[in-house]
Design a protein that fits this description.
single chain; about 180 residues; mainly alpha; 11 helices; about 0% strand; globular
């Protein structure tokens, strides 16, 4: 769908729409084929004249860049996620204000700082549930569940995964919670 949108925006000479569709595609595919070339491409996008004065487009570029960076090396995305947090706050983009703080929590967990990870993720997930950001809540609750499984606490991990599965079941317009089922 993103490729189709890119083509349509290109045909209509809508460069901003074309860039947004491409960035959406990059984010969607980041887990499949992260590469230095794509990361470099998003760096160039951040410098484009149409992006510089447009904070919403800048946010989309930063999100794509962060997704690519974390697939190559989770820790290398830390600075970009901090930029996302700051820009989301400036834009009053509440969804990303709630989601972006969870990402450093994941990095902390991978670095072995479980206490900091627990606090970052706990605060972010509670905020997502309390603000009805169920997509984010299911995603990050699944990550927490899988983290507990990886940390040798499968019973606790399964509980979190079951919460994510139940939340997804109650919100039928969501996608299938693959990560939650993997953890379970």
């Amino acid at each position: 769908l993103y490729v189709e949108a890119e083509d349509k925006f290109r045909a209509g000479h809508n460069r901003e729409g074309e860039l947004e569709a491409r960035l959406g595609r990059i984010r969607a595919e980041a887990y499949q084929e992260p590469s230095k070339a794509l990361s470099d491409e998003t760096d160039k996008d951040l410098q484009r004249p149409m992006v510089q004065p447009n904070p919403r487009l800048m946010l989309r570029c930063l999100l794509a860049k962060a997704e690519l960076e974390e697939e190559v090396n989770e820790d290398s995305s830390r600075i970009t996620w901090e930029k996302v947090q700051k820009l989301a706050k400036t834009l009053r983009d509440y969804r990303w204000q709630r989601r972006a703080p969870a990402e450093p929590g994941i990095i902390e967990f991978l670095d072995g700082n479980v206490a900091a990870a627990n606090q970052d993720l706990k605060n972010a997930v509670i905020s997502m549930y309390s603000h009805a950001d169920m997509g984010g809540a299911v995603y990050y609750t699944s990550i927490v569940g899988n983290g507990f499984v990886e940390a040798g606490q499968p019973r606790t991990g399964i509980k979190y995964c079951q919460i994510a599965i139940k939340t997804a079941d109650e919100n039928r317009d969501m996608g299938f919670p693959y990560m939650a089922y993997e953890g379970e």
